[in-house]
Write a structure and sequence with these properties.
Layout: H1 2-5, H2 18-30, H3 45-55, H4 88-100
């Protein structure tokens, strides 16, 4: 599939249910007649496959990640993400600054009617 149609499974390192994903994709194409990329619906799976080949749509559109959530586990990719994980020293410093009422660098401003 990869060599002939350039089909690859995205984020394979986070995939937890390959068999389930492949079954779902096959059902989507053959039972639902839905293109994996543009979601265009066809009367049968063969027409859908031909469309995907002709248009270069032999790929999974991951814009709606919720659709594939049952087959992936992305949580491990966020374990050390700097915006989600603060070390204990940074948490203590932030709390101490908040308790001391230190200026956070933001200026307060009042919005008057017509200033929006």
């Amino acid at each position: 599939m990869r060599l002939k149609y350039s089909f690859v499974i995205p984020n394979i390192d986070c995939l937890v249910d390959l068999k389930g994903l492949l079954t779902y994709l096959a059902e989507r194409i053959h039972l639902g007649g839905l293109c994996l990329y543009c979601n265009k619906q066809f009367a049968d799976g063969q027409s859908c496959q031909q469309h995907m080949i002709d248009k270069g749509h032999c790929m999974i559109n991951m814009d709606d990640e919720d659709e594939y959530a049952d087959f992936y586990d992305f949580s491990k990719t966020y374990e050390n993400h700097p915006l989600l994980v603060k070390d204990e020293n940074q948490i203590e410093e932030d709390k101490a600054a908040e308790d001391a009422g230190q200026d956070d660098g933001w200026e307060d401003c009042d919005v008057e009617d017509g200033d929006e």
